[in-house]
Amino acid sequence: MLVLQPWSDGFMWASLLPVAAAFFWASASLMTKFTVSRDTPTTLVFYLLVLMLPFNLAFGLPKFELPSDWHVWALLIAIGGLTAFAQWAIAKAYSVADASFVQPFDHIKLPLNVLAGFIVFGWVPPGMLWVGSALIIASVIFVTHYERRQNPVEVLWEEAQHEAELKGNKQLNNQSN
């Protein structure tokens, strides 16, 4: 709310669209985490692209024009490939790690988006955006630190040692019999 400043005269209801986008992104992340336990990341990416198709057609068909330049085709193919790869990477990350470990990496988008806005549009964010961003980053650091009761490396090490002990005990039992 610090960034949106709904109390100011310049507030527009369209300013709430990023809040809705954040809600839907969080929902998609949760659904990805739950479905990746049953399906492969490749299957999830396929379903995502199939489900996106009707929305893209609905918004794109009214002003649709076939590109005539091969550079535009190459750019469109590259964007499509990178989108599919990014979604596959997200699904793969959720399939091999806990969401509390993966989700903080999602917040790298914030400084990268600000940097892209500066490079492409020359836009320097206002002061309240920096305050809001600092609050988001601080809360992610706090929650990540609070939720991490044990070091994941230590947990994996202990599991590997436990499995090695079990194998060693089985071998001893087989040799004694």
Automatic annotation (TrEMBL):
Pfam families: EamA. Residues 13-144 form the EamA domain. The chain crosses the membrane at residues 12-32, 44-64, 70-91, 112-143. InterPro entries: EamA_dom, EmrE-like. One of its GO terms (cellular component) is membrane. The keyword Oxidoreductase does not apply. The keyword Transmembrane applies. It comes from the Bacteria. SUPFAM superfamilies: Multidrug resistance efflux transporter EmrE. Keywords: Membrane, Transmembrane, Transmembrane helix. This is Riboflavin transporter. It comes from Psychrobacter pasteurii. The gene is ribN_2.
